[in-house]
Design brief:
Blueprint lengths: L1 H18 L11 H12 L2 H7 L1 E4 L6 H9 L5 E3 L4 H13 L8 E4 L12 H5 L4 H16 L5 E2 L23 H16 L11 E5 L18 H8 L1 H8 L4 E4 L3 E2 L2 E2 L4 H11 L5 E4 L7 H4 L5 H11 L4 E2 L3 H11 L5 H17 L20 H14 L1 E5 L13 E4 L25 H9 L3 E4 L13 H9 L3 E7 L20 H9 L5 E6 L7 H6 L2 E4 L7 H9 L79 E8 L3 E2 L5 E9 L5 E11 L10 E10 L4 E8 L6 E2 L4 E2 L3 E10 L2 E9 L1
Parallel strand pairs: 1-2, 1-10, 2-3, 3-4, 5-6, 6-9, 12-13, 12-14, 14-15, 15-16, 18-26
Antiparallel strand pairs: 7-8, 11-16, 17-19, 19-22, 20-21, 20-25, 23-24, 25-26
Helix pairs in contact: 2-15, 3-14, 3-15, 7-8, 7-16, 8-10, 13-14, 16-21, 17-21
Length: 750
């Protein structure tokens, strides 16, 4: 009896500490605190541990066994259980037949669409349009919610510099500022209004550093010094927290020798103590047990102890927690108050989502939700805005719809599954509209189709003959190249970045016909296409565009719209150039274009130091294939009149930087205006350029708009290894169309 009273006193003290300072969305001390406090006080230790377990579909041998676990409070969430009727029934059991009526979370990967598939996230990031992406994620959430899902594992906001890494497809690219803007948009889109039945809990993943896997091999080791961690990799996650992300996911990777799911520095010191995050942290699939393989934990019991102590609230799919946490409490290795803290975070998410109050109902599948006409139309618009025009010699694009004949060739021209991209568990290739189908609908028998290759890795040339015949009968050639969806995504990393199979060989043959040759690349990563770039008259990078790939591509090919996308990642010339990113350091021996001596031009018997002592490759030089932020249009924009409101920035003031942008072409369209800065001297070396802002503006032919950006000292803050600082000194500033071009000015902080 005395021990029980002591336990109750400890629980009260714990709850006072946990909930002190917590506020609801209206900024007032919340009634929710007392609800959670009261509920935890009623729970047994077994029920608390049950809340910390997420079971995958198939974990239980029968539906009745599953329901019995729910009745007993032995599970807090399910993964990959869906279907409106099934979810409603299981949720009914949880709320009406379990002792405490605690509802369940039903999780599902809804990464870039549910049934209506949008472009891969890297493609959506190419739109540089946060409002569009927010709406795309809202549509995805609406469709998923209609099938009973209330939690999804998005957004993925890892920063990466390595296109070999398969999961670059799921990222927003290389830049922390751009990714942070999309982190906010995606969280807001997924969660919407938490009181709405279509709201899903978002999950910011993978915390943190997962995108820096050595050699681009998924799950690999990451080494990230603290200044780089704080100045780059943590920024999107802080943006997600600020946007209200209800959950975070710990990564697979070990960070500086410590697996993310057992990393006290990131999960406790930074996330909980510095950021005061009060949401839930879920492990990635089996990442707690994988600490054994990392060599960081002896066994599952040890792994459970490590993870629960550093701050992982819920274990995904595996059983280290449910098998060992009770033993660890009974043995005195962990205090039950620690369990209470973890459970409080889980219950808070369930209360915030309104799961205790929302009725259990059968939200049956309806045609006005899944694949709704408005959803498909928006997927088409999103895809169109995600494509990037990389080359357009002699204005070969757009083509006229009156063209007499058009050859449609290539393994991605009619690949309904592959065009959807990676992580589309609920996408259906039967819903896809392919380029071939759309072009035949528009042009009828004026389309001459021949795949040439059955799939992207095909090494057989048996289809070349038919492709060349189709090309010979046509006025122009559209060649759809790229890679299948299976070649990107989780665990699907590549060491070679060139087009797979014999696609390039076919392109060479098509070039020999002398017909205008337009290359459309559909891929899950930035490919090394330098050779293909030289062969083609025009190149449109379409990524994996999703369900509406065909109509979106046709919109651009025929000039109903102009391409507006810009690259969210640097395109390298080959894998040997990795890593190459726009905010790299200058080094002590920076090379300019004039310093480059190509390997083929080096005289024989040259002396060792005769080529200059500069930081460059002899074969690649210094420049990427395409810089970050690059993208062409069917019109041309002219930048002029860079103006700074002041040349001195004080620590309590702001500076406005503006420029005029004029559409000097003949096409009404959008331009994405980009804003960069450089801190010339710092207490640690600073990047050559940092993105600090962007605007998407629409211009009529001949129209000029003034675009303005604001700078204040906090925008220039960085972590110098000891603290966050904004330091006095001289700064460069650019406004331009990409990271390599633009109008340049300067200012000083005093």
């Amino acid at each position: 009896m005395i021990q029980q009273k002591l336990n109750n006193i400890s629980l009260i003290i714990f709850l006072i500490v946990v909930f002190s300072g917590c506020q609801n969305k209206n900024g007032t001390t919340i009634h929710l605190d007392s609800k959670i406090s009261s509920l935890i006080g009623e729970m047994t230790l077994d029920e608390k541990i049950g809340q910390m377990f997420q079971a995958s579909d198939g974990f239980y041998s029968s539906e009745e066994e599953l329901k019995e676990a729910v009745r007993d409070g032995r599970v807090g969430s399910f993964l990959n259980i869906q279907g409106a009727e099934r979810v409603a029934e299981i949720q009914r059991v949880a709320k009406e037949e379990s002792r405490l009526g605690i509802p369940l979370l039903f999780g599902r990967d809804v990464i870039h669409g549910y049934r209506t598939i949008f472009p891969i996230p890297l493609g959506m990031a190419s739109s540089w349009d946060t409002s569009m992406v927010k709406k795309a994620m809202r549509i995805s959430a609406v469709e998923a919610a209609s099938m009973g899902i209330n939690w999804t594992f998005a957004p993925m906001i890892d920063i990466t510099w390595d296109p070999r890494w398969g999961r670059i497809a799921e990222t927003c690219g290389e830049d922390p500022f751009l990714t942070s803007q999309f982190a906010k948009a995606m969280v807001e889109g997924i969660q919407g209004d938490l009181d709405d039945p279509t709201s899903l809990a978002a999950c910011a993943k993978h915390f943190v550093g997962y995108g820096m896997a050595e050699a681009g091999r998924d799950y690999n080791t990451t080494y990230i010094p603290e200044p780089l961690l704080r100045n780059v990799h943590l920024k999107p996650f802080k943006a997600a927290q600020n946007a209200g992300a209800l959950t975070f996911m710990s990564g697979f990777n070990d960070l500086n020798g410590v697996p993310a799911s057992g990393n006290e520095f990131i999960l406790k010191t930074i996330l909980r103590e510095e950021w005061n995050y009060r949401g839930m942290v879920v492990s990635d699939w089996a990442s707690i047990e994988e600490m054994i393989f990392h060599g960081f934990a002896i066994d599952k019991k040890h792994a459970a102890e490590i993870a629960v102590k550093v701050g992982v609230d819920m274990e995904m799919a595996t059983t280290a927690y449910i098998e060992n946490l009770k033993k660890l409490v009974e043995e005195g290795e962990i205090d039950e108050n620690l369990i209470n803290e973890r459970v409080a975070n889980i219950l808070r998410v369930k209360f915030e989502l309104g799961l205790f109050d929302k009725p259990v109902e059968n939200t049956a599948l309806t045609t006005d939700t899944i694949l709704a006409g408005s959803h498909l139309a928006y997927a088409r618009e999103m895809a169109r805005n995600s494509m990037v025009l990389l080359k357009n010699s002699n204005h070969i694009l757009p083509l006229s719809k009156e063209i007499r004949s058009l050859a449609v060739i290539g393994p991605l021209a009619d690949a309904p599954h592959d065009q959807m991209g990676t992580w589309i568990f609920d996408g259906n290739e039967e819903d896809s509209e392919t380029p071939k189908t759309t072009l035949q609908y528009i042009l009828g028998n004026r389309v001459h189709y021949a795949a040439g290759l059955e799939y992207s890795r095909d090494k057989s040339e048996k289809g070349f003959g038919a492709a060349l015949v189709a090309a010979g009968r046509s006025d122009a050639i559209l060649f759809f190249a790229g890679e299948e969806s299976i070649l990107s995504g989780e665990a699907n990393s590549r060491g070679i970045l060139e087009l797979p199979g014999v696609q390039t060989e076919l392109l060479v043959k098509l070039k020999e016909t002398g017909k205008p040759l337009i290359l459309i690349v559909m891929a899950g990563r930035p490919l090394a296409i330098q050779k293909e770039l030289n062969l083609a008259d025009a190149v449109l990078y379409a990524w994996h565009p999703g369900t509406m790939a065909g109509p979106a591509i046709a919109d651009l090919v025929f000039g109903d719209y102009s391409p507006t996308g810009k690259l969210p990642v640097t395109f390298v010339k080959g894998a040997g150039q990795i890593p190459l990113y726009h905010y790299r350091k200058n080094t002590g021996r920076p090379a300019s274009k004039s310093d480059v001596i190509h390997i083929d031009d080096i005289p024989r018997n040259s002396k060792q130091l005769s080529l200059g002592l500069k930081s460059m490759h002899l074969d690649y030089g210094t420049e990427p294939l395409f810089p970050f932020g690059f993208g062409l249009s069917y019109t041309k924009f002219q930048y002029s009149n860079l103006t700074l409101s002041n040349e001195v920035l004080n620590f309590n003031s702001t500076i406005s930087v503006s420029a005029d942008v004029e559409n000097i072409g003949n096409f009404e369209t959008d331009e994405i205006v980009q804003f960069y800065i450089r801190d010339r001297v710092g207490s640690i070396t600073r990047p050559v350029k940092e993105l600090k802002g962007f605007r998407k503006i629409r211009l009529m032919p001949g129209e000029t708009k003034n675009v303005q950006f604001e700078i204040e000292p906090k925008d220039l803050e960085f972590f110098n290894g000891e603290q966050y600082v904004s330091e006095p000194g001289d700064f460069d500033v650019w406004i331009g169309p990409n990271s390599a071009e633009g109008l340049k000015g300067e200012f000083t902080i005093k």
